[in-house]
Predict the structure of Transcription factor domain-containing protein.
Amino acid sequence: MLSSTSQAHHDESVEPEASPQFINRDPESTYDVFRKDHASTLFSLVGASQPRDPHEVVVTEQSVELLRIYQSGIGKWMDVLDHSLSYQRQVVRRSLSSSLLLHSVCALAAKQMSLASERFLWEPVSARYYGESLRLLIQDLNRPETSHEIVLAATILLCSYELLAAPGLDYERHLYGARTLIQARGIGAEVTDLEQASFWVYARQDVAMAVMNECPTLIPTHEWPAPLGHGFEEDTLGCQILWLLARVLELRFGSMDNLQDIRAQGLRNVSNEIDQWWDQLPSTARGVCTGDFSEDGLLKVWFYVPSAAAALLYYHMSKILILEDLSGTRSIAEVNTRDSPSRRCDESACLNELRSEARSIASICFSRSLQDSVLPVAVNPLFYAARHIPSLHLKARIWTLLDEIETRIGFHTKSRVVQLQGELEIDSNARH
């Protein structure tokens, strides 16, 4: 078990209140389902590995098409740090014998299609599958023989649907159901491969939302399991750096205002661990450089597996978050270092390092070989890269790439672009 002495901010937060009208209406989200009394049985969900689904599984031509779309599209996002491809293989296979899983997969695939393709065609389809998934989730939570791994995987899929449908709006509600199941079950060594895979999909979403909202993860890092894998497999390395990034978020954005020295020491410690992670990283996992440079001076790099690119993006963003804190420069518009008692590095040296890490992110993201499955991971690193790259031309290229990500794959980026442009305007006004 990985450990951390830090406490997540959310441990002390009050859970969102349930809607008083819920009893008189159908659930509208996974949050509604898990706040309802039906969820009281989830602590006993240990389940059989292959339970019999009491609902008849009806596979139609439409559901087969959505399964195919899922496997070739958003399923790859889910498995970007999983070489066993659990969500493309296991989840799809198990969905053929689980109505809950089948409807959840179809709901997510149709939602992604509605955002990236033909909205009027796919939006009603996604809503229909989503509504039926919530109904089936309630039923399965109340069956003693329910498989925990099936319910957890379905909840992860439905949380992903909700994050696509309404990004940034009360993200705790979107992740509430999955967090509840994970913490009730305890994702340690004695769980199935699918449960482990589900946790790491959840962890990536938890970290992404924490970065966007500048807060610790909902599940504190001392509750995270050790990343499982063999040797220096890139997916395992990616999970390791994801955990280290989550620790940086706890220290940087956690409630330790009166413990600045402890906080600063904690950041130095985790920074050393991140450097050790990098030092032990196989050279091939750092990307294969061609020796050529783009017109913006970016290094041309190729990654032979998507998980290596994703891991490197988490690494460079972790370094930026630490350097920002040590230099007292949290954004392009915040250059006053007097408010940072933890400042421990020369301002000029930190600025150069920040720009170097930012350019490394840009080099990865503008690589022609970068696969779509990495793009959702790239959104937050691109945001931080744009903050610290001085070239206006390269900033504009990053904004354009973020816009293209939303247009091409349906992953929300507009709010990040607006924030970046607002920060640049503030900085420009301050200079004049």
User: Anything to note?
Assistant: The mean pLDDT is 85. Residues 5 and 406 are 37 Å apart (CA to CA).
